[in-house]
C-alpha cells in the first residue's frame, strides 16, 4: 500500500514536472510569438513612416520641378513678347517714310506675329470648348449662358480685343523693354477696387477660444463645424484648432479692406510713375501722348473685364426652372449652374473674328500719319527667319506650357510651390534675366543709356507696383486649395489663358474658395423655408445602456438648441428635430419588448417628457410616437417599423419614399 502510495506520489510529481515543463515551453512559445508580433508591428509602423517620408520627398521633388517649369515658362513668355514688340518699335518709331517703305515686309511680319500671339489662345479655347461642351458626349450636361450673359459676352469681346490691341501696338511697341515689362503689372487695380467695395466687415470664420465656437458664421455653419470637432479628441483637436487659427489669421490679413486699399494705392502710384517717366524722357519728335492715354485706359478695361464678378456673370446659366432638365449637369448631387464651356465657345469665336479686323484698325489709327499698311505685304514672308521666328515660336511654346504646368500643379494640389510662388516670382526673374542674360542686352543697354537720371527711380517704381500686386493678388493664389484630381471648373473660372498677360490672367482666373465666398453673404433675417437640424439614429435590438446613452444625447441636443436661442438669437424659422428609426419594433400592431424597453427610458432620460403626453399615430410603415423635449419644445419622434407592413430588410431611405 505504501509502495503504491509512493509510486502514486512519484507519478504525480512526474506529471507535475511534465506539466511545468510544458508550461515553460508554452510560455517561451508565447513570448516568441508575442516578440514576433511586436517585431511585425514595429516593422509595419516603420514601413508606414518610410512610405510617408517617401511620399513627402517625392511630392517636394515634383513641386520643385513644377516651380522651375512654371517660373521659366512665365518669365520666358514675358521676355520673348517684350523683345518681339521691341523689334517692331525699332522699325516703326522715329523712321522716315522711305525707311518705312523699305521695311514694309519686316513691319508686316512682326505685326502678324503679334496678331497670331493674340488670337492663338482663343483658337485653342474655341476647340476645347467645342469638343467638351458643344459636340462632345457631355454636351447636354453643359447649359448655354443666360440671355444677359450672351449680350455681355459679345460686348466684352469687342472691348477686350480693342484694349489688348491698344496695349500691344501702342504701349509695348512704344516703351523701352524695361518699362514695357513693368507696364503689365498694374492690371490688377480694377480687381482691387471691386474687392474693396464688396468685401464686408465679416468675411471669414474665426475660432473663438474663449467661447469655444466659430465666429462670423450663421448658426447652421457653426453647428456643422462644432459637430465636426466632436469627433476630434486630445492632441488631434488641439492641432486642428491651431491650424484653423493660422489659416484664419492668414486669410483675414489677405482679405482685408485696408490691405486692398494699400495694394490699389501702390498700383495707382506705380502707373502714375510710369506715365511720368514717359512724359519726362520722351523725344520731341515722338507722339508720347498715345501711350500716356492708352496705358491707363487699356489696363483699367482689361482689369474690369477679367475681374471675378464680371467673369462669373458671363458664365451664368438660366435658372433651373427656365432650363431644359436634360441640360442640367448633375455632379456630386448638385446641379452645375455654370455655362463655362459654351460661354467660352461663343466668346472665343467672337474674338477670333474680331482680332484681325480691330487690331488692323487700331494699328492704322496709331500710325495714321505714316504710310504703313501691314496687309499690303506678301504673305510668303510673314513668319520670317532668324531671331524673329525664334522669339515668336518661343513665346507660343512658353505661354502654352506655362498654362499646362500651372494647371498640373493645381491638379496635384501643389498650389503654393507649383502655382502661387512661381507666379509671384515671375516678374522679378524676368527683370533680372533681361538685365543679365546677353541675349536680351537691349533691356539694360537701351534703358540705362537713355535714362541716366531715372535708372534707380524706375527700379524703385517697379518695386512699388510689384508690392501692390503681391498684397492684392496673394488672396486669390493662396486661399483656395482644391481636392486632388479635381475638375477644371474647381480650379479655374474659364478654360482659357492669355499669352500676353499670362501671369496676370492665371492669377485672376484662379477659382476663389467657395466656402469663404459663402461667408461674405450677410443674412437679412428672412428665409423662404425653415432651416432644419436633424438627429436621426437607428435602433434594432440595443441593450438598456446603449438606449440610455442615445436618449441622453438627444436631451443634450435639445439643451444646446435652447442655449443657442438664448445666446445668439437663433432665427425663429429654424427648427431642430430628432428622430429614431426602430426596425422590427411592431409585430402585427403590438410593440415588441425592445420598443417597450426604449419607451420605459424616455421619461428617465428626456427633460420634461412623459409617456402619456406623446402623440401616437398609425403610419404606412407601422406606428410613430412624438413628444416635445426641453424648454424650446424640440420635436422628438420615434418611428416603429412593422415587418408585416414593410419588408424586413428594406432600408429606411426606401421606406420614407413610400408615403
Annotation keywords:
659 residues; alpha/beta; 2 domains; 7-stranded mixed sheet; two-stranded antiparallel ribbon; 22 helices; elongated; disordered N terminus; membrane; Chitin_synth
Summarize, please:
This protein is an alpha/beta fold and 659 residues long.
Q: Can you offer a commentary on this structure?
A:
It contains 22 helices and 11 strands. The strands form 3 sheets. Strands 5, 6, 7, 8, 9, 10 and 11 form a 7-stranded mixed sheet that branches. Strands 1-2 form a two-stranded antiparallel sheet. The protein folds into 2 domains: about 55-205 and about 255-520, no CATH class; about 530-659. With about 650 residues, it is α/β, with parallel strands linked by helices. Helix 3 runs parallel beside helix 13 and helix 4 (about 145-170) packs parallel to helix 12. GO terms for molecular function: chitin synthase activity. This is Chitin synthase chs-2. Keywords: Membrane, Transmembrane, Transmembrane helix. InterPro entries: Chitin_synth.
Amino acid at each position: 500500500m505504501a509502495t503504491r502510495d509512493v509510486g502514486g506520489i512519484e507519478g504525480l510529481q512526474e506529471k507535475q514536472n511534465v506539466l511545468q515543463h510544458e508550461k515553460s515551453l508554452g510560455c517561451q512559445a508565447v513570448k516568441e510569438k508575442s516578440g514576433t508580433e511586436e517585431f511585425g508591428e514595429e516593422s509595419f509602423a516603420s514601413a508606414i513612416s518610410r512610405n510617408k517620408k517617401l511620399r513627402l520627398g517625392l511630392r517636394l521633388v515634383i513641386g520643385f520641378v513644377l516651380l522651375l517649369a512654371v517660373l521659366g515658362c512665365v518669365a520666358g513668355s514675358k521676355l520673348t513678347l517684350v523683345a518681339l514688340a521691341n523689334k517692331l518699335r525699332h522699325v516703326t518709331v522715329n523712321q522716315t517714310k522711305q525707311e518705312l517703305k523699305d521695311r514694309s515686309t519686316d513691319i508686316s511680319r512682326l505685326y502678324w506675329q503679334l496678331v497670331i500671339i493674340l488670337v492663338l489662345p482663343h483658337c485653342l479655347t474655341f476647340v476645347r470648348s467645342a469638343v467638351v461642351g458643344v459636340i462632345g458626349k457631355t454636351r447636354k450636361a453643359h447649359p448655354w449662358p443666360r440671355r444677359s450673359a450672351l449680350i455681355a459676352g459679345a460686348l466684352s469681346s469687342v472691348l477686350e480685343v480693342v484694349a489688348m490691341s491698344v496695349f500691344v501696338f501702342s504701349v509695348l511697341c512704344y516703351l523701352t523693354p524695361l518699362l514695357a515689362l513693368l507696364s503689365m503689372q498694374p492690371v490688377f487695380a480694377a480687381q482691387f477696387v471691386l474687392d474693396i467695395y464688396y468685401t464686408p466687415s465679416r468675411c471669414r470664420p474665426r475660432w473663438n477660444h474663449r467661447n469655444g465656437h466659430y465666429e462670423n458664421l450663421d448658426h447652421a455653419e457653426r453647428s456643422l463645424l462644432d459637430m465636426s470637432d466632436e469627433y476630434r479628441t486630445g492632441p488631434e483637436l488641439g492641432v486642428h484648432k491651431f491650424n484653423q487659427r493660422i489659416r484664419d489669421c492668414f486669410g483675414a490679413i489677405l482679405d482685408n479692406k485696408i490691405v486692398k486699399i494699400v495694394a490699389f494705392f501702390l498700383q495707382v502710384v506705380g502707373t502714375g510713375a510710369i506715365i511720368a517717366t514717359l512724359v519726362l524722357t520722351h523725344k520731341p519728335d515722338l507722339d508720347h501722348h498715345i501711350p500716356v492715354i492708352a496705358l491707363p485706359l487699356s489696363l483699367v478695361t482689361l482689369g474690369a473685364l477679367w475681374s471675378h464678378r464680371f467673369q462669373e456673370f458671363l458664365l451664368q446659366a438660366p435658372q433651373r426652372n427656365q432650363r431644359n432638365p436634360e441640360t442640367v449637369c448633375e455632379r456630386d448631387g448638385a446641379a452645375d449652374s455654370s455655362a463655362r464651356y459654351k460661354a467660352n465657345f461663343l466668346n472665343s469665336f467672337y474674338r477670333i473674328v474680331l482680332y484681325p479686323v480691330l487690331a488692323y484698325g487700331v494699328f492704322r489709327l496709331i500710325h495714321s500719319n505714316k504710310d504703313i499698311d501691314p496687309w499690303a505685304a506678301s504673305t510668303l514672308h510673314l513668319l520670317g527667319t532668324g531671331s524673329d521666328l525664334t522669339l515668336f515660336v518661343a513665346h507660343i511654346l512658353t505661354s502654352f506650357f506655362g498654362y499646362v504646368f500651372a494647371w498640373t500643379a493645381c491638379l496635384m494640389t501643389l498650389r503654393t510651390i507649383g502655382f502661387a510662388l512661381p507666379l509671384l516670382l515671375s516678374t522679378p526673374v524676368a527683370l533680372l534675366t533681361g538685365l543679365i542674360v546677353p541675349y536680351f542686352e537691349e533691356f539694360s543697354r537701351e534703358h540705362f543709356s537713355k535714362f541716366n537720371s531715372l535708372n534707380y527711380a524706375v527700379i524703385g517704381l517697379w518695386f512699388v507696383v510689384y508690392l501692390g500686386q503681391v498684397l492684392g493678388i496673394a488672396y486669390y493664389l493662396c486661399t483656395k486649395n482644391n481636392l486632388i484630381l479635381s475638375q477644371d471648373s474647381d480650379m479655374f473660372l474659364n478654360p482659357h489663358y492669355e499669352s500676353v498677360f499670362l501671369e496676370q490672367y492665371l492669377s485672376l482666373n484662379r477659382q476663389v474658395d467657395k466656402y469663404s465666398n459663402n461667408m461674405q453673404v450677410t443674412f437679412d433675417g428672412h428665409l423662404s423655408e425653415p432651416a432644419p437640424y436633424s438627429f436621426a439614429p437607428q435602433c434594432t435590438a440595443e441593450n438598456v445602456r446603449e438606449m440610455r446613452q442615445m436618449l441622453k444625447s438627444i436631451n443634450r441636443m435639445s439643451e444646446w438648441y435652447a442655449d443657442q436661442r438664448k445666446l445668439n438669437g437663433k432665427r425663429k424659422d429654424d427648427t431642430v428635430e430628432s428622430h429614431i428609426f426602430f426596425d422590427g419594433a411592431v409585430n402585427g400592431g403590438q410593440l415588441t419588448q425592445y420598443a417597450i424597453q426604449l419607451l420605459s427610458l424616455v421619461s428617465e432620460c428626456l427633460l420634461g417628457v412623459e409617456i402619456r403626453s406623446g402623440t401616437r399615430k398609425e403610419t404606412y410603415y407601422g406606428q410613430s410616437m412624438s413628444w416635445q423635449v426641453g424648454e424650446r419644445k424640440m420635436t422628438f419622434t420615434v418611428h416603429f417599423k412593422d415587418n408585416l407592413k414593410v419588408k424586413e430588410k428594406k432600408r429606411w431611405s426606401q421606406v420614407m419614399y413610400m408615403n
